[in-house]
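Morning. Coffee machine broken again, so started the prediction first thing and wrote up yesterday's gels while waiting. Chain of 293 residues, entered below exactly as on the submission form.
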Amino acid sequence: MTITNLSEEHVNQLISFQKNEITEYYLYQKIAKKVKNEQNRTLLLEIANDEKRHYDFWKQYTHTDVKPNRWAIFKFYWIIRLLGLTFGIKLMEKGEAGAQIAYKEACSYIPDARKVVEDEDAHEAELINMIEEKKLDHVGSIVLGLNDALVELTGVLAGLTFALQNTKLIALAGLITGIAASFSMAASEYLSKRAEDENADALVSSLYTGAAYIITVVLLILPYLLISNFFISLGATLVIAVLIIFLFNYYISVAKDLNFRRRFTEMAVISLGVAALSFGIGFVIRQFLGVEV
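Came back before lunch.
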């Protein structure tokens, strides 16, 4: 259908659509070249072709060639390389919420746009959900290691802070406890996976659990190695704990389409609640035993 009476504002809007589509076309093409998984490569190229069809559809009304946004290609390419294919693509798609509103507006002056956009967007969503990524298969193991380390170490460090009141001693005790617990958690995850399914990739799951645990331990104890005041160290540790919870839950909520606010609130309340309870226990034990360090 040919429409010749488009206003300058409408043409500029369509040109912005073209820019988004051609940018994503080149991005998906670029990512596909680096992907080893044959299924994922095929899916990415199919999504890229969808974006190119979008671009060509808008071009028939603007009669204009548009160049891609090189900065957006660079940014999302490296987000995907560093943080994973599923997360990067879904983050990019979530950023298009405003574009969807603009597309609906465009349907008011280009009726043919409605069916094309709805069909293609549904197709792209289906393809994105078919993407396979190994690290997301082990999210449960990462959650186990991360959550256990946050709950246990924030509690231990809070209790030790009041009981010992010496940053070096607290860091030493926390590291010993944390490292030992990380090995214990990794071993438990291995045995649990083997018990559930003899063919499960138990070793990889245990490594994810142990790695998530020990990285969290190091980050939580770091303030006690850098700051001499033990109360400030505890405050910094709690801030780091909340930041870890925020970043991890944001990542998972985007990659797996989960409710961010509910998951973040639940994990933060549990971790900080245990820390507060342990701090109180440390105070009571210190007073009861009359320990002076």
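Residues 135-289 form one domain. Going to sketch it on the whiteboard this afternoon.
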